[in-house]
Amino acid sequence: MVLGLGGMMPMPGRFLTAVTLRHRGQITLFDCGEGTQVPLKSSGFGIGRLSRFVLSHLHADHLTGVPGMLMLLAQAEPDHDVQIIGLPEVNRYVRTTRRILHFYLSYDLHYSNLDPAGGSWRGDGFTLHYRLLDHTAPTLGFAYEEDARPGRFYVERAQELGVAEGPLWGRLQRGETVSVRGAKVRPEQVLGEPRRGRKFVYITDTAPCENIMELLRGADLAVIEGMFAEEHAAEAAEKKHLTARQAAEFVRDSGCARALLGHVSPRYKNNELAVLEDEARGVCDRVSLAQPLQRYEIVLPD
Ligand SMILES: [Zn+2]
Ligand SMILES: [Zn+2]
How many domains does the chain have? Predict the structure, then answer.
């Protein structure tokens, strides 16, 4: 769910860009600017399920909501630890604020320092890939990739090999070799090719760069900044942001299945945002403007 689609500052009727991703009962929050706890409260997501913060860069519109969110989460008394995942300077901001404000937390906080050169962070049932983008401060873009699922189970083949329905089927599906009347049956004899997991991508605050393409390739859903209209392309280049049209070009060329534009400039009023969407859709009709608080489901590809 996109909690807000604003860039730079929260405004009446427009919260800052932040995204919740729910997977395996846990919520990952991508960025947390000032005021993000307000749309999160309206979202219907249980705040107590918030398990990790993934933070793109050290600019206020992506970070200053973190202390309040941590305090809000303490009230929900989660029964799990919470991860702060970002560049070392981003984690230092959170750690220092925590120390200075000296607020109480009812859970353990862990920090994962990401390498600015890019890499992968292993989670429960997924991998978070991250790459450096091209912005006025070091900024990471992210691809949250669900683990591959076992291939389809072919019942007829199992029966032909003499494996009767029961616990042996489950073991084969989990990738174990089983024996039936002295003969070995290997999982690949009864399973199809592993099926890929789903992929969500979060990219904001960047000039066009190759790593955008790398992250977007094969994504099922992306939230990508489309901060400016073409009319203000020079400003986008100077401040190292994407225009809506540039974002759409990346979506088109990467084969990303669906993308939502976010991080729009405060210079555009809500009734002017259609221009950004129109310019993007002129390039690729798989792009639309993010609708705050609408749930977007990523269905399993097969
Ligand atoms: Zn920003
Ligand atoms: Zn920024």
Answer: 2
